[in-house]
Design goal:
Keywords: Cell membrane, Membrane, Protein transport, Translocation, Transmembrane, Transmembrane helix, Transport. With about 270 residues, this protein is an all-alpha fold. It contains twelve helices and two strands, in the order H-H-H-E-H-H-H-H-E-H-H-H-H-H.
Length: about 270
Amino acid sequence: MAKKNINEMSFLDHLEDLRWHIIRAIVAILIAGVVAFIFKGFIFETIIFGPKQMSFPTYRILCDISTFVGVDTTFCADEFPFIIQNRTMGGQFSAHIWTSIYAGLVIAFPFVIYQFWKFISPGLHENERKHSRGFIIIASLLFFIGVLFGYYIVTPLSINFLGTYTVSQQISNEIDISSYISLVRSSSLASGFIFELPILIYFLTKIGLVTPEFLKKYRKFALVIVLILSAIITPPDITSQVIVAIPILILYQVSIYISKFVVRKQNKKAKHV
């Protein structure tokens, strides 16, 4: 049966269409998750437990910088003073399953974004639909950059601070596997989604909920929110929060320019009508 025109579709038809797009996205995530499940050694030994090794690139770079400026730091240690342990019968298998699913989400993200675009694109003008490929590429690129930023910056800073923090020498840190993986996962995925801010602002501007003037007016409030957000996804030290806040503030400024661009195009189109 031929697909109905968007103007002929009822509310239930839209829900049915959305349901199939969601199903396709979930199937893609599960397929990618199965691939991640098979490559268990690479996913865990190289990726998940990579930031636990002092040979991790971030620690080496920060150690070299600290040595150059003559500052004592924990980045130059031989190993972290904690071990990762499993305390439940199904803990490791559960960690394997859920880590594979989240890895599947990261791998399949471009297809998930594609399904999102396929759902909303029928409601756009023809010239707007022509830019679908660019939208998918930019959204995916921002997400992957954010994930890498979270993995190589936020995660090692968090592990270094929390893994070496102690209130007494009588206490040894024995970290549960679920707690460790949760930190790596949340730091990476949260950063990935935060880096989608320009895309979010683009659509909010398109539908009239956000304007460049609004973004400029509330820039100070945005700064406070960014600092709070940085404090949530990073350890409670000023250096880590500043490192995370800087790219988010840059993204916010880029979002203002994007909002200006959208408004300018809308005004130009209105003049020709």
